[in-house]
Amino acid sequence: MTNPKTEACKDVERLFDKYIDGMITVSEYKAFRTHLHECDQCRESWMALERTVRQLKMLDNVKPSDSFMPKLMAALPASSRRVLPRKWKHWAVEAAAIIIIITLVGLGSSYSGYTAMVTVDPGLGEEQTVPAREVTVLPENSVVEGDLTVVNGDVFIAGQVMGDVISVDGQAEPVQSIEVKEQNWLQRLVDHFVNIGKSFCNGLNLVF
Amino acid sequence: MPSVYTGEDTGRAKLLQQASDWDLVARAQKGDLDAFTLIVNQYKMRLFGYILRMIHSREDAEDILQEVFLRVYSSLARYSPQYQFSTWIYRIAQNLCIDHLRRRKLSTFSVDEKFGSEEELTLELPDESMSPESIFESNAVKQEVEEAIYELPVKYRSVIILRHIQDLSYEEISQIMDMPVNTVKTHIFRARRILRRRLQDAI
């Protein structure tokens, strides 16, 4: 600092921030402008401050990685009792859809085989062919005494769940009845089913 | 006269933002996941900008950003519209950043060390992954500015980011930091001058 600051300099210094924040009055602004015109030191001081704030405002926007959103959604707590009254009309109906059905062995289910297509009658008089997603069917005579957890798929529940239905990244739909039609070419999918069924049953809290 | 006018913004844009926030929050409170997702999309860039500049680590910043939204999600039932949503969410972010900085500091020193004022949170061991070049892919001048912000004591760092990068009003910052407006002003005036000196020497 070359010259000691005068009272006027100190007064104007106090106005710097007011100007930056848009809070300066007209008379203050006149004094501010006049002084800076006359005082080199304050003018430099002001310009450095102004430049600093301008540099702050020019910093780049930063954004999180693309994986942020999916990771967050996956981390959301699974909501219980998420048996959503979803409208059947919103389902996209695709032709020749392949549905993987997991039979809950040992629960007295009335279905022993696997099928490729499921025609589900929700009791609204509308038959819908369910589109290609991994689907779990809880048949009519079956009871799950604990919680039913379904991950990354949809579940149609015609049976009973004593605990909570927990659906993570999928839909859970109560239906009146389920009719399963058999097809012939399904054998090659059986191994696939068995593996899924095994891991799925491990994931369920089935209490017998 | 060059203009850096950042007037107290009680303008239309902010009011619209508030109204839209409240509508989305109300829907999210009723379980509307789409509304919650919209809230996330509205705030994720702003919050990430704040968090990243507070802690200077991309990976940790994403973890904290996720934690902010998880907390918002699980506290939705408790949120009341008397608090502005934007200040509420920033407050969560700030607290998590300060917790993170405390934990980071504790992990680099012995457990016995007396933990002093928050100003000490800036005294950290240098770490390659935290250099501005690796965090902010921008030019040398901007990196210098980022570094200067990061060198500020935590309270000053927070107010400067909230004011001049996030463009929040003194009132909003006062609520986020739970500090009177005049204290916020003093911090900002002081922080501006520290930055001015720091950047005058360097650039």
Can you describe this structure?
Chain A has two domains: 7-57, no CATH class; 76-203, no CATH class. Helices cover 34% and strands 17% of the residues of chain A. Chain A is built from five helices and ten strands; from the N terminus they run H-H-H-H-E-E-E-E-E-E-E-E-E-E-H. A three-stranded antiparallel beta sheet of chain A has the order 2-1-10, with no helix packed on it. In chain A, strands 3-6-9 form a three-stranded parallel beta sheet, with no helix packed on it. In chain A, strands 4-7 form a two-stranded parallel sheet. Chain B is mainly alpha-helical and 203 residues long. In chain B, helix 2 packs across helix 7, helix 4 (85-108) packs across helix 8 and helix 7 (154-165) crosses helix 9 (181-202). Chain A binds chain B through residues 17, 19-23, 33, 47-65, 68-69, 71-73, 75-77, 79, and chain B through 1-2, 4-8, 31, 37, 40, 44-45, 48-49, 52, 58, 61-62, 65-66, 69-70, 73-74, 136, 138, 141-142, 145-146, 149, 160, 164-165, 170, 185, 188-189, 192-193, 195-196, 199-200.
